[in-house]
Amino acid sequence: MKTALKIGSLTALTLLFISIVTFFVLKIRRIDIKYGLKEDSRPFVFLTQTEECLRPQLMQNMGLDNSQKCRCDVIVLSYHKACQSEWNPPHITYLFDKDSSWRTGRNLLYIHATMKGKPRYTYYIITDDDVFLKFNQAASEEMKQLTPLQVFQNWLLEYEPAVGVVDYSGANEAQNVLKNCGIYINNNSTTNPTVYFDPLFNAFHANAVHHIFPLLNQRENVSWWYTLRHVISNVELKFRGQALIFFPISVENSLHRNYPHTLENAQEAWRDYIENVRMQAPGNYANHSLFKEYKKDPIHYVETSRTYCMKVTRHRPIIPFAHFELANDTT
């Protein structure tokens, strides 16, 4: 009798588990249909660097071990040893370059992901290998029915920013919005334009990535941190108002490796990046006051920019420098 009860309990738990899994699979499938995705569609590619093989924590947190779950392909660049793991699913590709740095590694990943014959992904999600996504107090109960990554991916498809980022504890994004625009960030405010963001987890739209990569850093031997200035300068000056932050999800990182990092002469490097972007602008925009304002004091600009107050427009065409024609976007 006890054995029968035990078997019955196990059967009930098994059925419950199957029901839960089926619920989430169907929910994800409905979302894919909503955004016009085929059943086997992979609109996302993840690009990351690591010492040898993909870290289990990253795979578990984001579900990168399952191409249907993450709706993705994954490209990994190892820099200490080539990954020789026997477990090698077809959606994960390993590269190896023992001489790669943060910048050169990301450039190699970008080149490989966009080379001729590769799929044209909707978003190129570039991430450090030690990140962890989690919901924060701005997340709704409905969001929590899915994983943080799935919610972020759905948000990307729903809003289609040039660059999509999530909350990071050191960025003070909400404070900048409140200070500059008087907008209170709460559960009803999930999305806002941003200017300064950490590079540890960023999603670049296919129409924007080619205007941001390859990354520049002539001073990489001095500091890898300078490269961030190149990224945010490109994004702000080419796609102003289209770098969006999604507040309900936070990202953390656990590892702190040794690499060249200093902020000495960072302003000088930053101004060089701004000038580089200005030289790429069409002639009628090259002398716009925005370049002068940003270049005069980059730190002050990212802290006080009115970009934080710009209106959020879903599926806005992603065209470099087009924001100069939209003088009435700010509130």
Automatic annotation (TrEMBL):
Top-rank taxon: Eukaryota
TM region positions: 6-26
UniProt-recorded name of the protein: Hexosyltransferase
Keyword entries, A-Z: Membrane, Transmembrane, Transmembrane helix
